[in-house]
Amino acid sequence: MEIYTAVTTPAKVPGQLLTLFYANRLGEYPYINELTKEKYYGGLPQEGHLKGHLAKASEDIQFYIPSAVTPGLAVIDWEEWRPIWSRNWGGKKIYILHSITVMKKQRISWSMEDLFLTAERTFETVAQKYMAETLILGQEQRPYQLWGFYLFPDCYNYDYKNANKPYTGKCSSTVMSQNDLLHWLWGNSSALYPSVYLSTVLKNSEKASLFVRNRVQEAKRVATLHGGLQIPSIYVYNRPVFTDLNSEFLSERSCEELSKQLTQILNPYIANVSAAAKLCSSILCQGKGRCTRKNYDASDYLHLNAANFQIQKQRNGKYFAVGTASPKDLSDMANKFTCTCYVGENCQAHLPAHIPNTRRVIPI
């Protein structure tokens, strides 16, 4: 991946293009170990020390991102609890139970209903403060970084294993309403980092496309909810799927085949799509926006026509595309795609009446 300048490591290495802030690397994040039940920094957001957290977070930001003017991606990976009370299911239900226990000690005479509602409100209020104020701090100290939380937004469209009903991939109305409540998060983020990680059960399945495109669409939807001038960028977490089990290892032969797959198929494909996106932006959007599907749920893709373009590789390993777009290539592009303008730009999807039939070199 070095040809795409995207090589980073999750190790404690400062000054990377992509900085991952895990729970133990940014401030004093309160959480409970689900296995040992040990509490860290109070365990619950409402039992933590927000000022102490922000002070420590400031030090951590300066360590991991030494330069105040270097651009990059700053991803906060806090997965122990979720800021919406009802989303803390499974092992995360410990946050609900402990919150109610704390409230019981403070309000002995209250009814269970009042305890539950107050515990929920208190948890969500302080959880919001931790997340929002951490984002604000990060953007104040390192404004050239794009700050956001990993896995936000989520679509929870994991019902692709249910054989009893057709799978659409769409986020439920309940999930979308809950995501609407997180408008404060989208408004304080300069980037969104949803995940489209696939499981092996989706191999060669149309469900994979439905799963991915609806998760991306939900990110695009919530990005505009806060109504601000600055719409957060969207960076989608993706990965090659080797196995669903961390304990399962590939054979040497499988690793060699995987290497060939990445270098001979995936990398040239990424180059093709990237070049097609640049071409579409320059022609259809006049370089002032990016091309997006007219129908997000359609199977339309930005691909260079293999009959008219070639993907080539430079000596330094970087790719470029060479060729001439035919009138049909361009009309197909205009029929299936429209433009989303860049921040501060006015644009509209428009195919010029006359486009020089010249050979193009598109660097990646």
From TrEMBL:
The active site is at residue 79. Gene3D superfamilies: Aldolase class I. It is an enzyme of class 3 (hydrolase). Keywords: Disulfide bond, Glycosidase, Hydrolase. InterPro entries: Aldolase_TIM, GH, Hyaluronidase. One of its GO terms (cellular component) is acrosomal vesicle. Glycans are attached at residue 272. Belongs to the glycosyl hydrolase 56 family. This is Hyaluronidase. It comes from Polypterus senegalus (Senegal bichir). The gene is Spam1_0.
